[in-house]
Amino acid sequence: MSSFVLRAGLVVGPATSQVADVLLVDGRITGVGVDLDAPKGCHVIDASGCWVGPGFVDLHTHLREPGREEAETIESGALAGAVGGYTALMAMPNTEPALDNVALVSYVLDRGARTPLDIAVAGAITQGRRGESLAPMAEMAELGVRLFSDDGTGVQDPSLMRRALTYARPLGVRLAQHCEDELLAAGGSMNEGAVSGRLGLVGRPRLAEELMVQRDIELVALTGGSVHFMHLSTARSLDLVHQAQRRGLPITFEIAPHHFTLDETYCEQFDPIFKVHPPLRAKSDVDALCEALRTGGVDAVATDHAPHAPELKDLPFDEAPPGMLGLEYAASLTFEALGDAPDPHLFFSVLSREPARIAQLRHDDVRVRHSGHGGALTQGEDANLVVFDPHATWTAHNEDLHSHAMNSPYDGRALSGRVRATVAKGVLVVNDGDLV
Amino acid sequence: MDWHQGDLVIDSIRGQNLLTLNDLSRHALVEVLDTAESFVEVNRRAIKKVPALKGRVVASLFFEESTRTRLSFETAAKRLSADVLSLAVASSSVKKGESLRDTIATIDALGIDAVVLRHQSSGAALQVSRYVPHVRVINAGDGLHQHPTQGLLDAFTVRQVLSERAGISGQESGAALFQGLRVLIVGDIRHSRVARSDIAAYSTLGCEVRVAAPGTLLPADIENWPVQVVEDYDEALEWADVVALLRLQRERGSGSFVPSLGEFTQTFGLTLGRARRLRPTTIVMHPGPMNRGVEIDSRVADMACTVIERQVTNGVPIRMAVLYLTVAGSSGGVS
User: Fold this and answer.
1) Considering only Cβ atoms within 10 Å of each terminal Cβ, which end of chain B, N or C, has fewer?
2) Nearest CA to CA, how far is B134 from chain A (Å)?
3) Domains and CATH numbers, chain B
């Protein structure tokens, strides 16, 4: 391992920030202070004008391996994540086959260990994600799995969800739910509303999401289990969860950049790039999500990075698979959504510290194999950091993507704020905005 | 609410694609009706053919089964002297394992000027138009979205009947006969691309449009549509100048949106009893194929007030007009 110093950035702690140097030696933070002496041969990275904070943790990444390596691999997804400022990714279990047993989870953990990032795994809640019977959660928890999900879809059967929560509780793991009642969503392909009716596309009503949110809140109250709601997309969903959190229930949630930057009108041209579940909602929902983000009412921003091979996005809108890329622009989009005077503490809270807490990947969490994330940037912590330039302006171009897939909805969009450097597992992976 | 998508309003389909009627201006609609009228005469000749599209190639690409629309389009293309490539693609693109883009690229490689596309997915015609920007795309029905030529031929048929009664030509009448015309559309609005195209055409042309249907067969956002939902169907039948019935889309699962076909007929079918409420001048329409005994009583279907056969006949001149305007563009004239 090498040593290097991040020179003169705004070092953003959980509560305070100061312009300082951060010295990293052999994978750890060995010093934080003004005008630190750099050891001989130390690589100096100029961070002046930039924010230096804990590397981002994505709670929701589809890495597609095994089964759909033409869309993404663990390796390509990790590199895309690094460019986006991420130092840890939570791999979703809806691979082919689904990550519902120790052998498959081990495979992804081992492949992940060979990438520059920490790749944590969300195990499936039910066998084959079929929503019929519980997957071996205790065995997977032994391997270090701390989050379980059937994402792609939610656990539809309320009785099975109750059982899963009751079973998960003593294991100290959390269930991450994709909230959509599929019977009410009725096979729809966009938000139900003024646009869907005119376009003749079957709609997925907001209520399909909100009913499952409400159901699971009450199941959490009943069982004492913990739930993390994934990619909440409606104003009402946020209200419901805020109420539940005020009741003291162990509930967390994430929102995805596409839900707070794009609305349903993007579907007007029938471009399947904009098809996603839950769907892009109305402008009023987008505004509500942004407002919550700005005012500290959001636990985490997670990408729901969902690579798809190009030919699948050339299908008709109703036949195309849902999902869009997210890792490489999430930080810039979050930064923009934080408004004219973005709060760096809030920025690192939603992108790093809270996700790390939810994923149990912090420095003081009991971790089986991964390094610590979402830290306070104090001496002794594992070196997982990001340097973010809040003054940068740039343009998203699909040809610049590091993912195997190209299904980003942001091609040509002007962005502000950019990841300058990523240090993951003690290694400088990204510098000057691109892979080293 | 404004039904025009974005700010784009097309004032003429000359040299353009025909994907939806939502973005056509009144002028664009009337231009098609007027052009079609000049083709009606061609269809009455002993030799029903003009050289307007001689040497042009029109591909008819039907992903969904259709008899009358396909036949009507191909007849129209042939009467314009175009060469017709007819390709039946029965199964969905997914089942075939080929993307829509690849399918259309294959057809395009044969050298075509226009493609007439029927597809079970909403938006397919618009997607195809992005893949082959140099080819004119004519939507012959896409999912639940639009069936533009049906909307046009329905408006054409109404204008034809009314102008005959007024003793003037349709072309002379322009859009005047549509002003304030009371149109009642009945039945499966929710699953009907014909309804969406009809409503766009009639409302842009100046009609007052009302709809009658069981709540489940209305779209969830009907309050945003440029129509009024009638509370009393029987009263609305007396109100209407035009009653447009829709086919109950049983193949799209519409059967499960009503308790039974019998109950649908009881409540919203045009039964013999209800037909007596119609004023003698009221025009009854149906896009076909009819479910006789479901949305319309067999005897009503054969009554003098219906123009169902006329609609089929008018399909050919309307589609000739559409092909002529979109493919020949502004060059050349009707001869």
Assistant:
1) C
2) 18
3) 6-145+315-328 (3.40.50.1370), 148-312 (3.40.50.1370)
